[in-house]
Amino acid sequence: xGWLEDYRTIPDELPRYNMPFVYEGDMNSAVxxxxxxxxxxxxxxxxxxxxxxxxxxxxxxxxxxxxxxKPDCISLDEHKYxxxxxxxxxxxxxxxxxxxxxxxxxxKIKRLQPGEILLYDNIRLDxxxxxxxxxxxxxxxKYFKGIAxxxxxxxxxxxRDNDSMVGISYLEPTFIGPRAIxxxxxxxxxxxxxxxxxxxxxxxxxxxxxSEKYLPHLAGxxxxxxTGVPGMLKCYVEGYSLGPKNDNFLKGKIKPxxxxxxxxLKGKNxxxxxxxxxxxxxxxxxxxxxxxxxxxxxxEVCDIGEETVEMMGTRMKxxxxxxxxxxxxxxxxxxxxxxxxxxxxxxxxTIVLGGDxxxxxxxxxxxxxxxxxxxxxxxxxxxxxxxxxxxxxxxxEHLKKLKPDNNRYLI
Length: 411
Fold this sequence. Notes:
Blueprint: E1 21-24, H1 41-53, E2 59-62, H2 77-86, E3 92-95, H3 103-110, E4 117-120, H4 139-144, E5 149-152, H5 163-167, E6 174-176, H6 178-196, E7 200-203, H7 209-218, E8 223-226, H8 228-237, H9 244-253, H10 256-263, E9 270-271, E10 275-280, E11 285-290, E12 300-304, H11 306-316, E13 321-325, H12 337-344, E14 349-353, H13 355-363, H14 367-372, E15 376-378, H15 382-388, H16 394-401
Parallel strand pairs: 1-2, 1-5, 2-4, 3-4, 5-6, 7-8, 7-13, 8-9, 13-14, 14-15
Antiparallel strand pairs: 10-11, 10-12
Helix pairs in contact: 1-2, 11-12
């Protein structure tokens, strides 16, 4: 990715532009019992970068949280609180949604000085944010262009074409943030290792649509270990009933085309769960059931079982590289067999993807030991899989079409 060199962020050079900068990071986090968990590795990482950059220039910080109309689409008040635990010597002022694009906020941005930080509240609270980007009608570009430069450090959302996500490429100057460049370089490393063969990819979490999108490509490059909803769906399309509640959950949650796509996934290199942990919260019942006996189960799946941990872990720890992304169960409810699975592979070169995976490992005390032996911790989850499949990132495709001359440092 030689083109990245034209867009590196060097903080010491930013003051030469005599303007504040819009910094986009992705502090989108799991919501547990209506709150953002503390500590939060994703918020911690971006806060350290924001603290460093704001020594040199005034910053407008933009991030999103959750999806519109979903329970996790909340304000960034708790994010701000955690940021202030790291950014202790600077004041962070939050800008609420009605004031995102007002003239008063615009004047405030123009006056920003080094050490001053404006944190926009959840950008997805703006009704126009999630519309596909259109340069001619972009509210974001029209508002910020000419008064601020841009630093795009938001790789976890780079596979989306939302207004702020792509619009930042049109600010002058615009740079790619240091965290995004690091993760893009790890992405290239991972792709080179995958093409050599012998790697494993664990894919879990609560979504199956990204599995449908990426698995056909990834299954040709690595051994696949499906957990979470993708693991349930793989069992279901193989003809296993997971009991009325779980079958209805899959049929109600998963699109028909995703189910059909999973039916086409065949081969010895695709592994799915052989048992599940199930639970009835009201009755306080929790037990492990083999997949062959799930048809009579009345309870909801909440995790993979111990036999699955043993089966997958035994194979995964023999591989030269693991890419792991997406918990195996309901980690927000304390179901952590995902961590047990990764713990069995400790010592294998590992790339960890996504906020929920990182948070789970951190909560259970495994993240630190993994970092200590060189495991690469990626804030990007679905966006990393997107890149592994050689799919383009809209924001960077726009950026590469623009001439970088105005971005080169005035040295």
